[in-house]
Amino acid sequence: MGVVARIFIVLAVAAALLLAVPGPAVAQSDDPSSFDYGLIIDAGSSHSGIYIYKWDSRIGTTTSSSSSSTPIPPFSQPVTQQAWSADNKKAISKFNTNPTQAGASLQPLIAFATGIFTGLGITSQQKLSTIPIFLGATAGMRELDLNTREAILTSIRQYLADPATSPFQFQSEWARVISGEEEGVFGWLTVNYAAGKFGTAPPPPSLSSASNGKRKLELNAKGGGGGGAATDPTSYYGALDMGGASTQITFSPPNNDILADCKCVVSTDTPSFRV
User: Fold this and answer.
1) Among 134, 197, 205, 223, which Cα is nearest to 170's?
2) Preceding peptide of 22 cis, ω within 30°
3) How far apart are CA 270 and CA 22, in angstroms?
């Protein structure tokens, strides 16, 4: 998997975990052709959800600013909105008795995404085939035996790779079962990104009362965070993700004597964190 794919999958999966905390709303006046797009399917234990992201195109020939070349723009953050997500109520792990049907179960999600792009005026197969789509499955799939799990993934990979059923760019390794450790790290990234701990996210979320009397989590969609990322592990939030079939708790320990066997190192350029 290339560097761009790795960056996108970290950001997109982390953001997908924050369904209640969407990114900054996309301005309706934006020119769709000036952006790149990506999709991710979060295949959970009880349902699958698809999320669409966009970011400023990073088109250029070099990182230098010489007059003979076009500089590549700096890293641009992906953004989304609630209208760019949809759920499929049947989890892919539920196809354990008929795994060959798992791929076709994603049809409503693919149709939803295609409809969003149609609304944006993006309809050509040439353009759609440049938009990557990823699928990350979690505990529901981890609980299955290896043969069943692979049979389901094979069906999904075939469906996403076939232009007749999915118009988007896809590579076989882009659909996989992520480990519980990865799921925990993505949750940790999500919480601290949303809280502005890496210096590039929106301001910290706040709780407010919704019209139905429930509490809701909100992000201020204006502006970005402050300076660079903090270096003190104790200044970051821990994350507790209580899912349908698994629970992850993730934090950056104040010293390496705690959880000495932990091998997961998260890099946000500078600094890096052991979580």
Assistant:
1) 134
2) no
3) 26
pLDDT digit string (tens) for 222-260? 333 344 555 666 688 888 887 777 787 887 777 655 555
What domains lie within the chain, and their CATH numbers?
A: 3-178 (3.30.420.40), 182-274 (no CATH)
The HSE-up count of residue 179 (CA atoms within 13 Å, CB side) is 4
How many other CB atoms are found less than 10 A from the CB of residue 203? 16
What gap in Å lies between CA 111 and CA 109, rounded to an integer?
A: 5
- The H or E element spanning position 118 is helix 107-119
Q: Which amino acid is at 171?
A: Q
Look-up of token digits 């390496």? 256
The pairing of strands 206-209 and 272-274 is: unpaired
The CA-atom distances, in angstroms, between 228 and each of 92, 231, 233, 248 are 40, 9, 14, 27
Q: What residues have CB less than 8 Å from 210, skipping those under 6 apart?
A: 216
The pair phi, psi for residue 10, each rounded to 5°, is -65, -50
Tens digits of residue pLDDT in 104-132: 999 999 999 999 999 999 999 999 999 99
Phi and psi at residue 218, in whole multiples of 5°?
A: -125, 145
206-226 as b/e: b if 16+ CB within 10 A = eeeeeeeeeeeeebeeeeebe
Dihedral over alpha carbons 122, 125, 130, 132 (to 10 degrees): 90
Kindly report the average pLDDT of the chain as a whole number: 76
User: Do 117 and 83 contact (CB within 8 A), yes or no?
Assistant: no
